[in-house]
Amino acid sequence: MHDELWQRMQTQHIEGRVVLGTPDLYAAYLPPQILTGFRAAIPASRSICVAP
Protein backbone atom coordinates (compact mmCIF):
# COMPACT_ATOMS: atom_id res chain seq x y z
CA MET A 1 0.00 0.00 0.00
CA HIS A 2 2.84 2.42 0.81
CA ASP A 3 4.40 2.04 -2.65
CA GLU A 4 1.06 2.52 -4.39
CA LEU A 5 0.30 5.67 -2.39
CA TRP A 6 3.79 7.06 -2.97
CA GLN A 7 3.48 6.46 -6.72
CA ARG A 8 0.14 8.27 -6.82
CA MET A 9 1.61 11.20 -4.88
CA GLN A 10 4.47 11.50 -7.35
CA THR A 11 2.32 11.51 -10.47
CA GLN A 12 -0.66 13.66 -9.49
CA HIS A 13 -1.17 17.25 -8.48
CA ILE A 14 -1.88 17.22 -4.76
CA GLU A 15 -3.69 19.95 -2.93
CA GLY A 16 -5.74 20.25 0.18
CA ARG A 17 -5.27 19.91 3.88
CA VAL A 18 -3.35 17.21 5.68
CA VAL A 19 -4.07 16.55 9.32
CA LEU A 20 -1.48 14.62 11.30
CA GLY A 21 -2.48 13.39 14.72
CA THR A 22 -0.02 11.80 17.11
CA PRO A 23 -0.18 10.63 20.70
CA ASP A 24 1.45 12.96 23.22
CA LEU A 25 4.32 10.51 23.66
CA TYR A 26 5.42 11.00 20.03
CA ALA A 27 4.37 14.61 19.51
CA ALA A 28 7.74 16.09 20.49
CA TYR A 29 9.86 14.29 17.91
CA LEU A 30 7.76 12.47 15.30
CA PRO A 31 5.95 15.34 13.51
CA PRO A 32 9.10 17.35 12.66
CA GLN A 33 10.60 14.32 10.91
CA ILE A 34 7.39 13.53 9.04
CA LEU A 35 6.70 17.12 8.03
CA THR A 36 10.28 17.67 6.85
CA GLY A 37 10.03 14.67 4.55
CA PHE A 38 6.56 15.67 3.38
CA ARG A 39 7.74 19.20 2.60
CA ALA A 40 10.72 17.86 0.64
CA ALA A 41 8.47 15.57 -1.39
CA ILE A 42 5.75 18.17 -1.94
CA PRO A 43 7.33 21.65 -1.91
CA ALA A 44 4.02 23.44 -2.47
CA SER A 45 2.67 22.07 0.81
CA ARG A 46 2.20 24.15 3.92
CA SER A 47 2.33 22.91 7.49
CA ILE A 48 0.69 24.39 10.55
CA CYS A 49 1.28 22.82 13.94
CA VAL A 50 -1.48 23.14 16.51
CA ALA A 51 -1.26 21.95 20.10
CA PRO A 52 -4.41 20.89 21.95
Give a written overview of the molecule.
This protein has 52 residues and is an all-alpha fold. The chain has one domain (2-41). Helices cover 50% and strands 0% of the residues. The protein has helices spanning 2-11, 24-27, 30-41. The longest helix has 12 residues, at 30-41.
Mean pLDDT: 77
Structural class estimated from helices and strands: mainly alpha
In the predicted model, the low-confidence regions spanning at least 5 consecutive residues are: none
Major pleated sheet:
none
Strand content: under 5%
Elements, N to C (H/E): HHH
Approximate helicity band: 40-55%
Radius of gyration equals: 12 Å
In whole angstroms, the N-to-C terminal distance is 31 Å
Number of strands: 0
Envelope shape: globular
* Number of helical regions: 3
User: How many structural domains in the coordinates?
Assistant: 1
Give a quick rundown of the structure:
Helices cover 50% and strands 0% of the residues. With 52 residues, it is an all-alpha fold.
Which descriptors apply to this entry?
globular; single chain; mainly alpha
